[in-house]
Amino acid sequence: AEAREAYVAAHPASQALHERARQVMPGGNTRSVLMYSPFPTAMEKGEGCHLRDVDGRDYLDLCGEYTAGLFGHSEQRIHDAVREALGRGLNLAAVGAAETSLAGLICGRFPSVELVRFTNSGTEANLMALTAARAFTGRDAVLAFRGGYHGGVLLFPLSGTNPATVPFPFVMADYNDVEGTVALIREHADRLAAVIIEPMLGSGGCIPARPDFLAALRQATTEAGIVLIFDEVMTSRMSGGGMQARLGITPDLTTLGKYMAGGMSFGAFGGSADIMGLFDGRIAHAGTFNNNVLSMAAGNVALGKIFTPEVAETLFARGEAMRARLNGILTGMGTTMHFSGIGSMATAQFRAGPIERPEPPTAEEEALRELFFFDILASGIYLARRGMIALSLPVGEAELDRLAAAVADFAEARAALL
Ligand code: PLP
User: Fold this and answer.
1) ipTM
2) CB 3.0-4.6 Å disulfide test: which of 1, 13, 132, 390 passes with 54?
3) Distance, CA 415 to ligand 1 centroid (Å)?
4) Are β-strands 141-145 and 170-173 bridged in parallel, bridged antiparallel, or unpaired?
5) Could you tell me if the CB of 257 is within 6 A of ligand 1?
């Protein structure tokens, strides 16, 4: 309560903006993930890996726009590419060279992707991948995992069965449960079009899939003629060719999104030529902004010039070192708090690890998560409300030192609760 009161006192302009927003948008926002009680911090601008809120407070940005902000807020080469594209005009209602070169970059990097198509978001990419799998197999159901997140209409709660939002029948399985999942795949083989999985649960808490689990899914889906879809919307940053390249496990379809157009809106789905070939006219896939000139121009620079496979490896290593350092501090203090994740993504956990699958949080965990968020925010570091970190390229050693100090201060100040 005290941390909340301090937050309210320090953010009058954010509070006033929230009051106005609530008059015109349900919940006062247009992106559920950004809403938290009592009101969210509203940002005014960003530069590099720094943000300034509407009350004039400065933050180190380690939220990294939930992975979409990989390049930071002011990467000059991306801004230049967008300005150059703007100079040639918007909304040309035509195919262009930039989409072919960006598609070429993606096909060259992701082992599963022989052919690719663009969308406006990761949500649409997943909806289209599922549509393709259903058309390809002639089956209708999809196996997904509890706690998985594949977009605004494709979120899977920890309890209950189907999401209410899409009219596909879903079979729900438990993440990292080899035996149970393989049994479900076999049981439902004749109605399953696809198995869709994040190689690491992102929103679900940065919980990595065990390699043997993904390998078992690969084998069971191949045997049953089911399309295996890796949702790499978040995890594609884990190497030049995503988690699939890192693990050497190749799905049939892959979905992409987030940072890949340099921070412009983006999504893509791609895979084997036999499945993706359906879009040669047999299935339609339109979308006014699929090849919008800003996303395509920025994406070419982002992937082709900046986030090269070498840079992806460096970022991965920086993230691994960060998590080891944070966990070393926390273990040294004797807390169960730790950071899960892989590479440049991490989530604060308030139960003993390693965590294999998400579980409904206890009231105590909820309270600690909220306290962590407000304490770290008060120290000038902006994270996702759920305690997720996604490193951006401008984050360097000095910034990671700041994070380590803030986490140590939190663990010390709140030792009695942890
Ligand atoms: N898939 C995963 C794994 C995601 O994390 C997200 C977004 O957070 C999506 C899909 C949806 O992407 P978008 O928000 O671009 O629709």
Assistant:
1) 0.99
2) 13
3) 35
4) parallel
5) yes
